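ok here's histidine kinase, seq below lol
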Amino acid sequence: MLRSGGWAAVSRPHVVDAGLMVSAVVITALTLREPAYVPAGLAVAAPALLVRRARPALVAAITMGADLAAMSALVAEGAAAPLLVGAAATIALYSLGRHGERVWLTGTALTVGYVTVVMMVDPVNLVGKVMQILAAVLLGRLLLLRHRLLERRKRRAAETAVSTERRRIARELHDVVGHHITVINVLVGAGRTTMASDRAAAEEAFVTAEHTARQAMAEMRQLLHVLRADDTAEPTDHTGIGAAGVPALVEQARLPAELDVIGKAVPLPAAVDHAVYRIVQEALTNVRKHAPAARARVRLSYLPGSVEVEVTDEGTGTPVRSRGGFGLRGMAERVALVEGVLTAGPRSEGGFRVHATLPLAMPERRPDVDHSAPRG
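and the structure came out like this:
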């Protein structure tokens, strides 16, 4: 008994080619009946269509040769030559354009040979047959070019998706690791400095550093959970933290910092909610790095249709910060993902300012479209 797995080797292209072969035989038998050996000869050449994808030039030569032989035999018998190129030869010519590598060289050689014989045997139908040959080859070639174009688009889309995912992971790692490592560095430095003079303060700094390290590990686990999510789910930057965590973020900043919340807090789209937290986190991290003694101010404004985030400090707008590093670039990418607006740079009165406007209406994702090309 044939097991179901035995059909695995019979692919769709093989079935299509077998169907085309049978169709060519049937069409030939219906259109050419006398003398009997003519359709029989053409039918013998039809099985070559089974390898039309692998050997398109050879199949075209065999079927066109059989077509010419049949035409010559009909004329010799005093019968009228067919108006069109035979079915098998037409399919083979299409395959030459669709699957052939040196289509123009091979097609030209076959066409010249075919036309030479037709001019001697059936000059009346020469133009129609030449047009049919060209149409079959060009149709196959156009479909091949379309298929290659779609394949390039698919590869480009895949490369873009990989690049986007890499940037997303880089943003998360930078924000999580950079923020917490900076805090730990400040705490450990403060503890080391005050250990001799104020042991209690030093111990408090070390305990806070330990807590910060645990928090970093927790956020890393959240991030890994998101990255390991089911591949069928839509990619997301959201790891469960958002605007609700901003007060704690400001409190733990180890900076002279204050938070102003303007307007009534409303539920935010996940990506916007996450972006608010990360923007504040990165801005405060930059203050600690570049102006550790400066006072920072965080303003979170809930407006109709948008939410605004502003972080300012009274330090010096250093050239390093004004040029922007990976952190500022990551903020810009987050804001761009939700179609918001970000400005960051030194303030005229001194210090640095980061301001982002994030719309509450998220842009709709366009569904992926299957651009698969026909495989004939």
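fwiw Residues 164-359 form a domain with the Heat Shock Protein 90 fold (CATH 3.30.565.10). kinda neat tbh
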